């Protein structure tokens, strides 16, 4: 895993841990402390605070192993923005759960934050880099970088990175490979039935259990699930049988719960994931599974 990228963002409590360390001590930091771990929100909320003040996540397939979470990254949609005197708080949802992301800024960084506010708004997908913190028994992520996602392939890529990080590299079987040896491997490493393997991985990262198809569809949650439900339901009615509901219809149906930006962001993700498609123009949609 690579070292986390940095940019001028987030003084406050973000620099507290490293403030008392000498340059020599920083250079001697272990690879574990410099690693960047890709996670889902479900995994982040499942981490425990160890006696050494380090958050750790138990490996779902090897109870004897734990992953130290020094620097983490995840992707999700901004659902809520709350500005305070010393920080800005973002509620981010990735389909497996929601977590608060705090950005602390110094006086010198106020200009930078002002320039980024138009990018970091409700309904926008972002990648967050930061460290896990807890306050009043509630977990949050202290961000040292927030980056808007413009290529939605990055969401899929992140999901694959999470699974790769979770599974690691399985041990090679001794001697010639055989079907029996492969079958004896844990499902997480490709042994057993493919559906069972998919279910175990999906449950570990928070996408729920079930067969492989359910695991693939599991990231649809929150506003994304609501939008998909509206498109599917309205698309089955005679009035929308040909072209499906319009963007305006979808926004109006969900106006009590979600902002137009959040709905538009969800539509874009559903299009990228291949769960819905455009019909007569770029503002009318039908669900792939609308039968």
Summarize this structure briefly:
The chain has about 290 residues and is α+β, with helices and mostly antiparallel strands. About 35% of the residues lie in helices and about 25% in strands.
Order of helices and strands: HHHEHEEEEEEHEEHHHHHHHEE
CATH homology group of one domain: Nucleic acid-binding proteins
Return the average pLDDT rounded to an integer. 73
What's the total count of β strands?
11
CATH domain class name of one domain = Mainly Beta
In the CATH scheme, what's the topology name of one domain? Answer: OB fold (Dihydrolipoamide Acetyltransferase, E2P)
| Share in β-strands | 15-25%
List the uncertain runs: 1-8, 10-29, 169-195, 209-220
Structural class: alpha+beta
CA distance, first residue to last residue? 43 Å
Radius of gyration equals 21 Å
Q: What spatial form do the alpha-carbon principal axes imply?
A: globular
CATH second-level architecture of one domain: Beta Barrel
> What profile does the largest beta sheet have?
5 strands, mixed, barrel
**Helix tally?**
12
């Amino acid at each position: 895993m690579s070292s986390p990228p940095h940019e001028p963002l987030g003084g406050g409590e973000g620099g507290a841990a490293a403030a008392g360390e000498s340059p020599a001590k920083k250079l001697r930091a272990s690879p574990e402390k410099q690693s960047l771990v890709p996670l889902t929100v479900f995994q982040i909320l499942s981490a425990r605070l160890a006696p050494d003040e380090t958050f750790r996540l138990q490996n779902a397939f090897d109870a004897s192993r734990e992953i130290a979470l020094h620097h983490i990254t995840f992707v999700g949609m901004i659902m809520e923005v709350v500005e305070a005197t010393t920080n800005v708080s973002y509620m981010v949802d990735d389909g497996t759960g929601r977590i608060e992301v705090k950005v602390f800024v110094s006086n010198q960084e106020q200009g930078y934050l002002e320039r980024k506010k138009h990018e970091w708004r409700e309904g926008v997908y972002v990648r967050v880099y930061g460290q896990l913190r807890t306050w009043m028994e509630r977990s949050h992520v202290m961000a040292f970088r927030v980056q808007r996602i413009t290529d939605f392939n990055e969401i899929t890529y992140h999901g694959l990175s999470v699974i790769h990080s979770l599974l690691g590299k399985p041990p090679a079987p001794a001697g010639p490979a055989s079907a029996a040896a492969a079958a004896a491997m844990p499902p997480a490493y490709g042994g057993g039935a493919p559906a069972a393997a998919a279910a175990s991985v999906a449950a570990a990262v928070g996408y729920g259990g079930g067969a492989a198809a359910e695991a693939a569809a599991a990231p649809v949650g929150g506003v994304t699930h609501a939008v998909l439900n509206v498109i599917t339901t309205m698309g089955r009615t005679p009035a929308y049988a040909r072209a499906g509901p319009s963007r305006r219809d979808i926004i109006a149906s969900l106006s009590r719960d979600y902002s137009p930006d959040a709905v538009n962001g969800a539509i874009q993700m559903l299009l990228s994931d291949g769960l819905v498609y455009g019909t007569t123009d770029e503002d009318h949609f039908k669900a792939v599974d609308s039968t």
